[in-house]
From TrEMBL:
UniProt keyword annotations, A-Z: Cytoplasm, DNA-binding, Iron, Manganese, Metal-binding, Repressor, Transcription, Transcription regulation, Zinc
Chief site of localization: cytoplasm
Protein name: Peroxide-responsive transcriptional repressor PerR
Gene symbol of the encoding locus: perR
Binding annotation for Zn(2+): C95, C98, C135, C138
Cofactor annotation: Zn(2+); Mn(2+); Fe(2+)
Entry-linked InterPro entries: FUR (IPR002481), Fur_C (IPR043135), WH-like_DNA-bd_sf (IPR036388), WH_DNA-bd_sf (IPR036390)
Localization annotation: Cytoplasm
Lineage top rank: taxon: Bacteria
Length: 144
């Protein structure tokens, strides 16, 4: 078990959440895959391990992880939420052909928030940015 999974499980225990095998598996899958999966993808991946687990169980646990601040729900207009266990400040590049999402960081964008606050008088609480394009795989390139 990776340190981040152990840390996340400890956070849940401290907040009084019981750690079920399903919760452990869903959280581990999210933290280790970093693929921004849908709830259905998580369910399909874990179904062989947990044949009695339902899609509703996956959704309910994801909702609980979101409320605990451990997972972000990504909605990009394709009517299927994706889930991201990387809660650090980062952005996403989305393939318009296959839907693959990759993380990227660009710390200079924090300056945009500061500039917006100065120019508007708003207290900025955050921003969201996503870029769209075609991934290397869909373009037929051999790189990832």
């Amino acid at each position: 078990m990776t340190t981040s999974v152990q840390h996340a499980l400890e956070q849940l225990k401290v907040s009084g959440v019981r750690i079920t095998p399903q919760r452990h598996a869903i959280l581990s899958y999210l933290l280790e895959s970093m693929e921004h999966p849908t709830a259905d993808e998580i369910y399909r991946s874990l179904e062989p391990q947990f044949p009695s687990m339902s899609v509703a169980t996956v959704y309910n646990n994801l909702k609980m992880f979101i409320e605990a601040g451990m997972v972000h729900e990504l909605t990009y207009g394709d009517n299927s939420s994706r889930f991201d266990a990387n809660i650090t400040d980062h952005y996403h590049v989305i393939c318009q052909q296959c839907g693959k999402i990759e993380d990227f960081s660009y710390p200079s964008l924090e300056a945009v928030e500061q500039q917006a606050a100065r120019h508007t008088g708003f207290q900025i609480s955050g921003h969201r940015m996503e870029l769209y394009g075609t991934c290397a795989h869909c373009r037929g390139l051999n790189q990832q």
